[in-house]
Amino acid sequence: MNIPGRLAAVVAALLLACGCSISTTGPVRSGQPATGIEPGIRLYFLDQHGIRLAIRPGTRREDLQQTLNTLVSGPDQGEKRSGLYSDLPAGGRVQATVTPGAVTLRLSWSAASLSSPAVQQLVCTAEDAPTTGPVPRIAIVSSDAPSAIQQECDLHRTG
């Protein structure tokens, strides 16, 4: 056998001996398995970087109207300490009407008085609250906007 043939045979033998360099290990423990959506109330407040999800611990997720009532009442003390705040006017109310595939939010204050981040707080919270079926379309209605204004949560947009 010539030198190039021997060299090729040695290289081939080395490659076979090395394998693919993936070590054989058994299962690796890495904590608890995923369990789905964390229970509790899912609220969207603001911080210095924009809109942020806050989950208040609980044994279950609240329904949409209860969730909106909680959002309007503002962040709790712990959420405030972590820098969260609300841009929604104090003392207002939001009434949710759910139909298949849609949620209408009727505001007790003027829609024009709401900042864009406040609208996002409402819309993201409404989209994330428990409903049946796919994520609903959100419409906002108020005394100064009697025609429904369609909104979408910027955090949930796809595409």
- Are there runs of 5+ residues with pLDDT below 50, and where? 26-34
- What fraction strand? 15-25%
Q: Note the quaternary state here.
A: single chain
For the largest beta-sheet, the strand count, sense and barrel status come to:
4 strands, mixed
* Mean of all residue-level pLDDT scores: 79
Task: Record the strand order, biggest sheet.
Answer: 3-4-5-6
Q: Helices and strands: which structural class? A: alpha+beta
Q: What is the N-to-C order of secondary-structure elements (H for helix, E for strand)?
A: HEEHHEEHEE
Task: Give the fraction of residues assigned to helices.
Answer: 25-40%
Radius of gyration: 27 Å
How many β strands by DSSP? Answer: 6
Described by the principal axes of the CA atoms, the overall outline is elongated
Which key terms come to mind for this protein?
159 residues, alpha+beta, four-stranded mixed β-sheet, 4 helices, 6 strands, 27% helix, 25% strand
What does this structure look like?
By secondary structure, the protein is an alpha+beta fold. 27% of the residues lie in helices and 25% in strands. The chain is built from four helices and six strands, in the order H-E-E-H-H-E-E-H-E-E. The protein has helices at 3-18, 64-72, 77-81, 116-128; strands at 41-47, 50-56, 94-99, 102-107, 137-142, 145-151. Strands 3-4-5-6 form a four-stranded mixed β-sheet, covered by helices on one side. Strands 1-2 form a two-stranded antiparallel sheet. Strand 4, helix 4 and strand 5 (137-142) form a beta-alpha-beta unit. Helix 2 (64-72) packs antiparallel against helix 4 (116-128). It is elongated and about 95 Å long. The N and C termini lie far apart (62 Å).
